[in-house]
Amino acid sequence: MSFELDSFHGRPCDFTRVCFEHESVSVVCPLFRPTGTRCRRRETRMEGRNIGLDVHRDFCEVAVCQAGKVAHWPRVSARPGPVKEFAEQLGPDDRVALEATGNALAIARIIRPHVKEVVIVNTRQLHAIAASKQKTDRHDPRTLAQLLAAGMLEHSWLPDDGTRAARRRVGRRANLVVARAKCKNEVLAVLHRNLKHRPPMTDAFGVAGREWLAGQLLPADERDTIDAALRQIDFLTEEITTIERDLAQFVLASPDARRLLTVPGVGMITAAVFLAQIGTAPGDINRFTSPRRLVGYLGLDPRVRQSGNSPGYTGNISKEGAAAVRHVLVESALTAIRSPGPLRAFYQRIRARRGHPIAIVATARKMAKLFWHLLVREQDYAYALPTPLAKKTRTIELKAGHPSRRPGGPHVPVNREQRRAIERQIAQQAQAAYERTIADWQRAGTTRGAPAQT
Fold first, then answer.
1. Which residue, 46, 228, 250, 374, has most beta carbons within 10 Å?
2. CB burial class (10 A; 0-12, 13-18, 19+) of residue 368?
3. Does residue 230 sit in the same domain as residue 339?
């Protein structure tokens, strides 16, 4: 047995204000009046309601759409107890839509067992909310409920626990690296203010660099600044090492991550950040039906503008999705073009026409497409360099805590430098083969487009 919201005496708009305090964020008025109150009893439960939640840090604004009419419900505190009480008053045929915010997933987990469907939507894709002239807490859930009733909301992909843990680790590491860079810049700023030369060594914060810093004559307050910055650098370095150990263990245990390492320029961080964004579970890459969809998801696709009879033109990349993935892909592309191979030939071909900035982003986009093919086909990169790959793998093993190898292993007739020279020669042959393929393809296209000779 339950009761309809519109069965209360008085105006419908008065319901949302019954016993409601502006300072409170909890449900102070139940959604259904208990037995014995002045209301009509119905023998059937209200079915097919579409409920919109505007989720905030401390509360959720609630709106329900049924039979084309929208009503507002009291606020619900964004805490497990009140959210569970709210979910228990919903029906098995109700549908709930909420924005994709930081605590939306935890709220969806509590509500999902009590309703038919929970839809978590990306509000950046909802023009009705993002570009609305009436952007208020009470208006947003109303719009969500109406769009849900009209069937115009699409599900957002929900990552599993492993993917969420990987995202938190790579995000935490990125923040720590930025904080450490600020501390290092603070030390360099002290030297600049006091007219000191740049440190003569490559690493100004290593053993030799710290000895050089300690020998500089500086005022007492500036010396305190440098000492404090060095202590912060040591602390942040330890935290980064701890997180990188977890990431290294994840990369070594993931077949997909080890497959990405076969691409020149791809290291532990690039593989971890990429998989943390698309999904760490086997088969998560299959949610992208084509490489172009993956490129669009990462924001590496160009914007297209076209109107009327005028031809469309492309602009800068869209920059949708996670910026961290685009950052590591560009960094990997900068490393990949230093080694001979198809990626370097592709970069040189684009740079000759469009310049370095566009060519390096195009190479990053090409690497994203390459990642899709490698993961979908479950194949390693055909032009992998064995010696750099073994070195990368060993570096990751040491970061993961594996024991160091003792010197004096089995005798190898060809040393590492000789092996690398042989592999570079093979890679140069692959680059030349790629260049010949592109040249033949362009020549064939020019021949087909040329007028017939008479």
1. 250
2. buried
3. no
- The CA distance from 373 to 134, in Å, is 45
pLDDT tens digits for range 338-384: 988 889 999 999 999 999 999 999 999 999 999 999 999 998 998 88
Are 123 and 269 members of one domain?
Answer: no
Regarding whether 299 and 324 lie in a shared domain, the answer is yes
C-alpha to C-alpha distance for 449 and 444, rounded to whole angstroms: 9
Alpha-carbon distance 77 to 79, whole Å? Answer: 6
Give the model's confidence band at 412: pLDDT under 50 very low, under 70 low, under 90 confident, else very high.
low
> pLDDT digits over 228-240, tens only?
999 999 999 999 9
Q: Please indicate, yes or no, whether residues 201 and 110 belong to a single structural domain of this protein.
A: no
pTM: 0.79
Distance between CA 27 and CA 85 in Å, rounded? 9
* Residue 275 located in a structural domain: yes
The one-letter code for the residue type at 331 is E
Identify the residue whose tokens are 């362009």: 442
Distance CA 326, CA 124 (A): 19
pLDDT for res 415: 66
Q: Does residue 199 lie in a domain region?
A: yes
Q: In angstroms, rounded to a whole number, what is the distance separating the alpha carbons of residues 272 and 173?
A: 11
